[in-house]
Prior knowledge:
- The chain is mainly α.
- It has helices spanning 18-27, 66-71, 76-89, 94-97, 110-114, 120-133, 138-160, 182-189, 196-208, 213-226, 231-241, 249-258, 273-280, 285-290, 299-302, 310-315, 331-347.
- The longest helix has 23 residues, at 138-160.
- It is globular, with a radius of gyration of 22 Å.
- The model has no long low-confidence stretch (mean pLDDT 95).
Amino acid sequence: xxxxxxxxxxxxxxxxxxxxxxxxxxxxxxxxxxxxxxxxxxxxxxxxxxxxxxxxxxxxxxxxxxxxxxxxxxxxxxxxxxxxxxxxxxxxxxxxxxxxxxxxxxxxxxxxxxxxxxxxxxxxxxxxxxxxxxxxxxxxxxxxxxxxxxxxxxxxxxxxxxxxxxxxxxxxxxxxxxxxxxxxxxxxxxxxxxxxxxxxxxxxxxxxxxxxxxxxxxxxxxxxxxxxxxxxxxxxxxxxxxxxxxxxxxxxxxxxxxxxxxxxxxxxxxxxxxxxxxxxxxxxxxxxxxxxxxxxxxxxxxxxxxxxxxxxxxxxxxxxxxxxxxxxxxxxxxxxxxxxxxxxxxxx
Length: 348
């Protein structure tokens, strides 16, 4: 949207807090409109080349990319269609629905932005035009553009901090007492933590290459706070599996959740996966889709199956520890460990 050189503080450094950053961006007015498509593309001289299919880049045995093909159609045509669909049908309810993984409330544009099939300026001007045409979508458009602004913020952070994916922005976290645990990390990666909202998110990620934004925060918080596993391990997994993995947003968001980044969430804010599930997926629709072994569990128990009686679980074909895992860690214990670890670096 704007070059990093346009958003500097008095010392000539980039801003580290989003709200003043976004105010500065908005104060500059609309960014330049995208250039029109060229009228003519002249082909270069013919050169000997292989057919792309002959390189056999797509997986075959096993074909782990089937879900990606089901979920995404690469290319500018698909990207523009998604943008039009969002502005026509979902922008109006974006403010309320964007945090709900049980419905289609987000734009789903991040992969297209990631691969340059849409530019931020294209999205900006299309969104502004939609708001001018129908003022009732204005609040949704404003919130949507602020999310585009957060992406811009992350890009500016990367410009100023090229080591964003490996180095804590807040250096006091360099001595944080992480507890490496390959078994726990593998359970988290496979969606086998015993917390339904966490497991649903990680299974959605493996199948589709994306994860709902609210669930990303819950999943990331669970790894770095409940399990005390280094945020860089989570960042690396997302980088390998997300189709929208962005060199700025991915590490900046992980650092935000871990508490060591710019404008970061306080480390003592430890998401309770059960409460997050009950608030944002109240009927269990999202969990039932991605954790089918729990599909018949009643809504009041689906985010806390460990609270169900053995008879209740048996009646829906669930045996904890067999058909679905027991919680990998108790929430209260995980929170207590996280706060104790944070206290150590504060004292240091």
